[in-house]
Amino acid sequence: MSRIAVVGAGPAGCVATHRLINAGCRVVLFEQGVGLQDFHSARSSIHFSDALAEEQLLDHSSDVTDAGNSALPYVRGKGVGGTSSVNAMVQTWGCPDDYNQWERIFGCTGWGWSSVRQEFQNLHMGSSRSVDLGRFSREVVDVALRMGASGVQHGAACADGAGSVALSVVDGQRLDAFSAYVLPLLRNAESAALLEVRTHSTVEAVVMEGGVAKGVALGDGTEEHFDAVVMCAGAIWSPLLLLRSGLYGPAIGRNLQDHPSLSIIVQMAQNVEETLPEVTSLVVASSAMGESNIHLLPVNATSNGSGMQFAQLAAAVTKVSSRGSVKEVDQKAELSLRSLTTDDDAEAMRAAIILASDVLAPLKESGLVVECYVDNTGTRLHELLAHDQASMAKFVQRQLGAYSHVSGSCAMGNVESEHAAVSTSGSVFNAQGLWVADASVFPDIPRGATQLPTMMVASRIARGIAQQLR
Questions:
Q1: What is the pLDDT at residue 41?
Q2: The pTM of the whole model exceeds 0.70
Q3: pLDDT tens-digit series, residues 220-253
Q4: Radius of gyration in angstroms for the set of CA atoms belonging to the chain, rounded to a whole number
Q5: Which residue from 27, 39, 172, 356 lies 20 to 30 Å from 66 (Cα-Cα)?
Q6: CA distance 354 to 343
């Protein structure tokens, strides 16, 4: 019976562990952060506001250094469940052609829409919809519909339109990936005998001997041997751990992508007390640069303690060609996202901001909204719109967006190259017994929230690993 180390208990590691255990493998799941019992109330809530829990459940070990800025934190989830424990819970798949292009353009045979659709359907993360969208979210959707958008329930294959979005909520509570995929294993005696979950346990590197992964080196200075190692540490730390392990493929740490976004801060005219998820709806639109490549994501209003209430509208570009990189400096990850560095991406971002302004204008005219700001220093939306495309792109580069969907740093391909670090089965080129099964392997970022695409990839790769190790 194969004994496998899975590194990282975020969405990818949780679903990969589930598939491997169900195939009869023995798994040790390593997670550097906390376990589910720690700060459970904050983790399971549809909101995320407890300051102490926030410190425990967020990873601050990565910085972005784009656009000549001083280092700005790029925050991700930490602890079992990973980012699924702290994100906005939006559950989307991306567009069918995203995956057809993985196959057609990037040489990822077997990853077209017809192949991945069933894997998406096999994932179970709640997919509830809020009965009440909330005041701000509802108004944004209504304005978009009056502007001609179609009414859409967003979730599976993407389509232009405005409406509710599927959320990972069950019985009014957040469903994180650990609760959905690992806890059921631990509650079953047969599967629990095959699984060990180690929290507060840092993997420093993969132990390599003659090109073969033999185990992992741990933060306490020890080494542990395994028959195989599956990296699920995310698009920031999976490539960095490979580099620490002496693997220097030309694509490891390169081809980094994210969805560039601008958070427009919306000052509301009056306070509205609501106990709803912050995100309940989505507007998807097309621009001259591509189909369904713009998101407007309303975030319902919260109070800031001064008596004023603020909502947000995130304007994002989801089909991007800009690519960056990640490297390790003094034990911290340093990201160069290079967002909006291609003309197409910059033009699409400008279109997204203009659309957001058009949607918000009637809300200001009606008196629901007092003012719209694009940073924390008081720059107003109309002031940003007065600038040209290049200036707008530079401004957005200086603002860390709300989406945080970094991916692609160990991209899949049919042969090792500057664009491909792992094979279409997720195995690392020039290494045996070592796989990557998280958002790192996306050859191109899908047009949607990346949690479910990440889990889909991990599920398919883990199935293939189990078959190979039988």
A1: 41
A2: yes
A3: 999 999 999 999 999 999 999 999 999 999 999 9
A4: 21
A5: 356
A6: 17
DSSP string, 405-463: --B-TT-B-SS-SSS-SB-TTSBBTT-BSEEE-SGGG-SS--SS-SHHHHHHHHHHHHH
Q: In this predicted model, what pLDDT tens digit does every residue of 200-215 receive, in sequence order?
A: 999 999 999 999 999 9
For residue 125, what are its two tokens? 């993360």
Domains of the chain with CATH codes: 3-126+174-256+407-469 (3.50.50.60), 135-164+259-397 (3.30.410.40)
What is the β-pairing status of strands 309-317 and 173-174? unpaired
User: Which of the 8 DSSP states describes residue 84?
Assistant: G
Instruction: Write out the two tokens for 99.
Output: 């995956």
Over the range 262-293, which residues count as b (16 or more CB within 10 Å of their CB) and which as e?
A: bbbbbbbeeeeebebbbbbbbbbbebebbbbb
CB 198 within 8 A of CB 28: yes
Q: Alpha-carbon distance 369 to 380, whole Å?
A: 13
Quick: pLDDT tens for 261-298: 999 999 999 887 777 889 999 999 999 999 999 999 99
Using the structure block, give the residue that is written with the tokens 């102490």. 52
The CA-based angle 154-16-120, given to 5 degrees, is 25
Residue 399 has pLDDT above 70, yes or no: yes
Q: Which residue has the higher pLDDT, 65 or 103?
A: 103
Question: CA 240 from chain center: how many Å?
Answer: 18
Scored b (16 or more CB within 10 A) or e, 187-224 reads: eeeebeebbebbbebebbbbbbeeeebbbbbbeeeeeb
